[in-house]
């Protein structure tokens, strides 16, 4: 698969890891726009309508909430990978 080669070669790398953004309703990787542009991937109409309705504003996430999510993923990550 060509996209796998691109990812492995670092074409879409995010410095420091795979940063995740959110507007409170949706979440996506920081480098998602690069994939959309490079591969011409379409996005769901509902996502586009929602993004336009909130003027593509991101939700500020409290450090405490980020740490809570990190703890959860650390504890459950292996189980989630096997789903």
What does this structure look like?
The protein is globular, with a radius of gyration of 15 Å. Strand 1 and strand 2 form a beta hairpin. The chain is built from four helices and two strands; from the N terminus they run αββααα. It is mainly alpha-helical. Strands 1-2 form a two-stranded antiparallel ribbon. It is 52% helix and 7% strand. The two termini are 22 Å apart.
Concise description?
This protein has 83 residues and is mainly α. It is built from four helices and two strands, in the order H-E-E-H-H-H.
The number of helical elements comes to 4
Strand percent estimate:
5-15%
| Low-pLDDT regions | 1-8
Shape, per Cα inertia axes: globular
How would a textbook summarize the main sheet? 2 strands, antiparallel
Helix content: 40-55%
H-E string: HEEHHH
Number of strands: 2
Main β-sheet, spatial strand arrangement: 1-2
- What's the pLDDT, averaged over the residues? 76
What class, by secondary structure content?
Answer: mainly alpha
Distance between the termini: 22 Å
Secondary structure elements and their pairing?
Elements lengths: L1 H7 L11 E3 L4 E3 L2 H8 L5 H9 L9 H19 L2
Antiparallel strand pairs: 1-2
Q: Main traits of this protein?
A:
83 residues, mainly alpha, two-stranded antiparallel sheet, globular
């Amino acid at each position: 698969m060509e996209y796998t080669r691109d990812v492995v070669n670092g074409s879409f790398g995010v410095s420091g890891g795979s940063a995740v953004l959110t507007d409170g309703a949706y979440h996506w990787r920081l480098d998602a726009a690069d994939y959309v542009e490079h591969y011409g991937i379409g996005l769901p109409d509902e996502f586009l309508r929602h993004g336009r309705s909130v003027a593509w504003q991101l939700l500020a996430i409290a450090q405490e909430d980020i740490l809570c999510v990190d703890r959860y993923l650390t504890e459950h990550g292996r189980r989630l990978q096997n789903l």
